[in-house]
Design goal:
Blueprint lengths: L8 H5 L6 E4 L7 E2 L2 H7 L4 E8 L9 E8 L6 H22 L15 E2 L15 H10 L6 E5 L2 E11 L11 E5 L2 E5 L4 E9 L5 E2 H7 L10
Parallel strand pairs: 2-5
Antiparallel strand pairs: 1-3, 3-4, 6-7, 7-10, 8-9, 9-10, 10-11
Helix pairs in contact: 2-4
């Protein structure tokens, strides 16, 4: 379900019933390479599975069946992927059993949105955004490829966090404003992000309490 490739025309024109694809969104929303990540990054409350026939362009084929799936408030891309994979397999089996009775539905191109491929720059955290937006980026890229910032010229991936949308501060975005034994809090343009799991460049992922054993991170440090 995570593969992304434009197939040769023969693949979908030679089979008498066409070629069927399982896509991880409610098409025509989120056509493209990263529908799971982009749905979470954009703060969607639901997504789904689309069983469709492949045609000559990306994710534009006729819809055979769809199933809506909620995106829970703290769900990561990895967790959503696993749910969609299991539900997608079940829906595919149902479609194959009922294929001769299904009336394919043409997609409404006017409702289409894109889910472009993730690049390294996609994961660079901009703390000049509200905490909710920063949080969605973090969970939308967790566990892979990971949202990141920079500290002491090293990449620091933030893998587990929670938004503190009601916290008030007057600190520049990116500033460490609270440090506790097992977490630290970063100022955003509105609110803040409480971080509990990180991965420093060249190191393994760690809970913050273990990260502090080998790295000094002080209040007023600015992450860029």
């Amino acid at each position: 379900m995570t593969a992304y490739r434009i197939l040769p025309k023969e693949v979908f024109t030679i089979p008498p019933h066409g070629t069927i694809n399982v896509h991880a969104s409610l098409l025509p929303k989120y056509r493209g390479a990263a529908p799971i990540n982009r749905a979470i990054i954009n703060g969607e409350s639901e997504t789904g599975i689309t069983i469709m026939r492949i045609d000559a362009t990306v994710d534009t084929g006729n819809i055979l069946m769809q199933e809506t799936i909620p995106i829970l408030p703290f769900m990561t891309a990895g967790e959503l992927h696993d749910v969609l994979a299991e539900r997608g397999a079940r829906l595919l089996v149902r479609v194959l059993k009922e294929l001769n009775q299904i009336q394919p539905k043409k997609q409404d191109d006017s409702l289409a949105t894109k889910a472009p491929k993730l690049t390294r720059e996609s994961g660079h955290i901009n703390f000049n955004r509200p905490a909710a937006s920063v949080f969605n980026l973090i969970r939308g890229l967790s566990p892979y490829p990971g949202a990141y910032c920079f500290i002491q010229q090293k990449t620091l991936k933030i893998l587990t966090a929670q938004p503190l949308t009601d916290i008030n501060h007057n600190r520049p975005p990116g500033t460490i404003i609270i440090k506790e034994r097992d977490s630290f809090t970063i100022a955003c343009a509105q609110g803040a992000i409480l971080v509990s799991e990180v991965q420093l460049q060249g190191k393994r992922r760690l809970p913050v309490r273990d990260f502090f054993n080998g790295f000094q991170l002080d209040i007023d440090t600015i992450l860029t």
